[in-house]
């Protein structure tokens, strides 16, 4: 289970954007989190991905209570969560070629040896060929860059995926393709998915169940 218990979080402890949020995600489940822009759902997604320390509350991942976040989280927990953000250009190092962008988690966790071979499978899965892998972010479209970011999230074969407005900047065909990639991975591995968004139609079609922001957190 991925459990968020009584999470209060934000960027100013005096003005938290998330207050007393509770959420539970089972292995293999696709859970949609639906809410309007600015409600705090992206902050909660970052807490779930171990990228933001809450001011109060507890994160439990696979039965282990998380005590450190970001680089202070144990490697064994960090590598269990893959995350895809809304804006690929803000989450991609502009200096890296796409193949190196996808390999970032491997190098960050001491698995850089053999990275080129490890990158091949997720790159193929998202539809990136050798020509695109040799390009830098400014040389590809938003959709192609987001494909690389999805491949980056999958390269460590995580047990949990957090997709925060993953398709908000994409056209319909790219949205369909990347949702299909995530679903194929989830079926193959039994990974749990937290899909954050504001489109009830997309989340309704994508996820096993959808919860509304007002049902999990105090506004």
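Q: What amino acid sequence fits the structure above?
A:
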């Amino acid at each position: 289970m991925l459990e968020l218990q009584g999470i209060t979080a934000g960027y100013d402890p005096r003005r938290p954007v998330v207050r007393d949020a509770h959420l539970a995600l089972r292995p293999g489940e696709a859970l949609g989190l639906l809410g309007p822009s600015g409600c705090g759902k992206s902050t909660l997604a970052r807490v779930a991905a171990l990228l933001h320390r809450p001011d109060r509350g507890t994160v439990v991942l696979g039965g282990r209570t998380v005590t450190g976040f970001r680089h202070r989280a144990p490697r064994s927990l960090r590598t269990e969560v893959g995350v895809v953000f809304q804006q690929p250009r803000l989450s991609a190092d502009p200096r890296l070629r796409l193949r190196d962008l996808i390999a970032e988690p491997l190098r960050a966790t001491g698995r850089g040896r053999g990275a080129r071979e490890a990158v091949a499978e997720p790159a193929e899965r998202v539809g990136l060929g050798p020509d695109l892998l040799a390009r830098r972010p400014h040389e590809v479209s938003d959709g192609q860059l987001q494909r690389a970011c999805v491949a980056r999230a999958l390269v460590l074969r995580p047990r949990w995926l957090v997709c925060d407005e993953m398709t908000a900047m994409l056209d319909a065909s790219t949205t369909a393709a990347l949702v299909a990639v995530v679903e194929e991975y989830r079926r193959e591995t039994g990974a749990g998915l937290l899909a954050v968004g504001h489109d009830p139609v997309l989340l309704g079609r994508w996820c096993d169940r959808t919860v509304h922001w007002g049902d999990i957190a105090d506004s």
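Q: And what stands out in the fold?
A: The chain is about 35% helix and 20% strand.
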